[in-house]
Amino acid sequence: MNLTKLHPFLLLGSFCLASLATCDTAKANDVVGPLVGAVESTSANFLYRVGESEQPLRLSVLLDGDVVQAVDSIGRQEDDFVAKFSISNLRPDTRYHYQITNTKTGETLIEADEQHAFRTANPARHGNRVSVGFVSCVDIEPNGIWKEMQGLDLDTVCLMGDTPYIDSTDLKKVRTRHREFLQMPDLAELAANTPVVGTWDDHDFGLNNGNGHNLMEGKVDTRRGFVNYRAHSQFGNGKEGVYHRVDLGMIEVFFLDPRYFSQTEPSPVDPTQPTCFGAEQWEWLLTGLRESKAPFKVLAFGAIWEDKKNFETDDMFTYWYERDALLDVVKNENIGGVVLLGGDIHVARHLIHPQRVGYDLHDFVISPGHKRTITELDVFHPSLEWSLVEGWQFLTLTADGTQAEPTLTAEFRQPDGVVNRQVKLPLASLTAVDSSKPDSGLRAHWSFDGDLKNQSVLGDRVDAVAVNDALVVTDGGVSGGALKLDRSREQFARVPRSFLDDNSNHHTVSLWFKPTSLPAHGTSERHFLLESTAEGTESAKSAWHLSLGMRSSEDASKVNLQLFTHTLQPATEIGAAPAAKAQGGFDALVDREALLGRWNHVVLAFDSSSLTLTLNDKQIAKHPLPVPGPASEFGGLIIGGHRVGAGRNFDGWIDEVSIWQGEMPAETK
User: Fold this and answer.
1) Among candidates 243, 184, 284, 248, which has minimal Cα distance to 44?
2) What is the arithmetic mean of pLDDT over 189-205?
3) Phi, psi of 586 (to 5 degrees)
4) Going by C-beta distance under 8 Å and a sequence separation of 6 or more, which residues neighbour residue 236?
5) In this structure, are residues 76 and 63 in contact, taking their beta carbons and an 8 Å threshold?
6) What is residue 27's predicted lDDT score, i.e. its pLDDT?
7) Of 212, 432, 169, nearest to 319 (Cα)?
């Protein structure tokens, strides 16, 4: 069409229509919501931004067409014109509709239609089914996750940080990014009738690898913007932090804040170290866990619970003392149904920390919700079961109490109905075993009575494997069979995975050995009874937290029963991470004739401050550690050799190898 031939009034009309369209678009871009926030059994929270003006608004909740609750609010300029509404005294497990009106003009801004509805939570702890979605690391761009979530009938959607990416402490930019994120059409459609809650991670906190110290000034404004654009029932202590919890009956989610308070005060569990959670959040979390009646409890944040193994320090490995104190509370107080959840690293992962809390602790990492992955962060961890380096990922946790056995099902998902991994956890599997039983702390036991199988609760996770035709003989052991090793053939047994808690602070190793030869006097020969490996296979990489061997000494009549260890050295400055530190050797001289050709019982005890060595029921050494600290990471064990496997092997028989988390029970000594 040639516009030059049109009547000038038509041209003017066309211009006006275009201008109106532009004006409408600008106005639409000012609107956010309505968004349904935290919804529990009798309460619901909402937010709505009608534009850049203060308008008197009323949110009414309707049941069967009748208004049953109403609350007024004004989106003040200091809150970026976002109005918040909190409704209480609702009926549990009831579907409501809501509408929003301007009380000054009487105009209905949001109709009480099917798009604007919500259901209160069912508070029942059994006989009910609840499904929750989790996503992290999402950019302001089209993706299929929000539409996919709409089709899954989720009870709540959790934004787990870097939702969105902001990387600024400028309040105007913070608010703009939050607005643009919530205005994405598919997310806006989802949030209008599905509760949307969450926490933050470093990029929406304001700084990559950010913590409470290096963002001391800016975090006030990033929190302000976060609070503006979330509709939670709680934001930290009301002035600082963003932690909160949502109880959905069958499942309760604890949204933790590892950012705001980190590095700002001494840790409540170790005043010599900086905190992650801060004293107030720490007490809030412990109190909530102890009081929770939900069968399943999710400890969720945007970071991860183990070492990222890069230059950054925003993981719970940096604060291992708070992580482990928290998990010890879960274990010692028999708190069942706990799982961990994290994000951040642009890789999806599933880890199982064996018997960490009196039962296997499942750890779900869900990231990213965009397409940019980081292969380098798909690192080794001894508890890793599965990982996926792909984009557009999210997770659902479904707590089903409608069957005889309540079950929590985790599904790692992508759009178009893709389920990459499903994990079903009966509640009984998330319930602590009887800690009074004498073998409750036994993590590994190889009797070598006919095979190399582990006979502890960890089962085949730590079955040993014979290398270079190492033999399991049927008799001649301390009790039945034994492992027979020929040093000249470099024989040993490999245990492919670890068996202790991450960064264990106390454990005991017990074994029997009968050497057919000892390191020759005056030589550099070394005969290792055992040594831990870095990643479950033979390598020279230093990870010898457990290391017990023999070498010659200056005295020709004696042999040196020598220990080494690898521990964590605590951080020495603000913002630093702990580091692995090699310590030893620690020497203990023993008469050769007392060892050679005889069965000997050796016990090695580690308690983070010392190594104690007992031989044939007599303590022969207690070595203080120059640098106290818990175990550093290791991935497996060599029995009858050192970490490389070849060259420093034991010669003779080994039997009844046991490893205990904590102290070995007196009745087994």
Assistant:
1) 248
2) 98
3) -115, 120
4) 223, 242, 243, 244, 257, 260, 281
5) no
6) 43
7) 212
Mean predicted lDDT score pLDDT of the chain: 94
**Given this model, what pLDDT does residue 22 score?**
29
The two structure tokens encoding residue 409: 């099902």
Which amino acid belongs to residue 578? P
The token pair that represents 523 in the structure block: 């030589």
In the chain, what are the helix, strand and coil shares in percent, each to the nearest 5? 15, 35, 50
Q: What is the pLDDT of residues 27-48, one digit of tens each?
A: 446 999 999 999 999 999 999 9
Residue 222 CB-half CA count within 13 A: 30
- With CA atoms as reference, report the closest residue to 611 among 587, 592, 645: 587
Q: What residues contact 396, with CB distance under 8 A and at least 6 apart?
A: 131, 132, 133, 134, 152, 154, 409, 410, 411, 413
Q: The dihedral of CA 459, 457, 355, 478: what is its sign?
A: negative
Q: How far is CA 402 from the centre of its chain?
A: 28
Asked if the peptide bond before residue 161 counts as cis, ω within 30 degrees of 0, the response is: no
Which value, in Å, is the radius of gyration of the alpha carbons in the chain?
Answer: 30
SS (H, E, C) 189-246: HHHCCCCEEEECCHHHHCCCCCCCCCCCCCHHHHHHHHHHCCCCCCCCCCCCCCCEEE
For residue 74, what are the contacts with CB-CB under 8 A and spacing of at least 6? 54, 55, 56, 57, 83
pTM, to two decimals: 0.94
Determine contact, residues 362/352, Cβ cutoff 8 Å.
yes
Task: For residue 424, give both structure tokens.
Answer: 């079903």
Quote the longest CA-to-CA distance of the chain.
116
**Cα gap 541→612, rounded to integer Å:** 25
For 144, the token pair is 């299929």
Residue 497's nearest CA partner among 543, 548, 564, 529 is: 543
> Cβ(241)–Cβ(254) under 8 Å?
no
618 contacts: CB under 8 Å, gap ≥ 6: none
Under a CB-based contact definition with an 8 Å cutoff, are residues 531 and 511 in contact?
Answer: no
Residue with tokens 């996750």: 145
* 245, two tokens: 């919890």
Helix axes 171-182, 219-228, angle to 10 degrees: 30
Q: How many CA atoms lie within 13 A of 104 on its CB side?
A: 6
Distance of alpha carbon 361 from the chain centroid:
10
Whether 152 shows a pLDDT value over 50: the answer reads: yes
- Per-residue tokens: 296: 């399943």
What DSSP element (H or E) covers 13?
helix 8-30
Q: What is the DSSP code (8-state) at residue 446?
A: E
- CA nearest to 661, candidates 400, 358, 433: 358
Q: Residue 464's CB: how many other CB atoms inside 10 A?
A: 26
Q: Is the peptide bond prior to 34 cis by the omega test (within 30 degrees of 0)?
A: yes
Helices marked H in 273-421: 279-291, 320-332
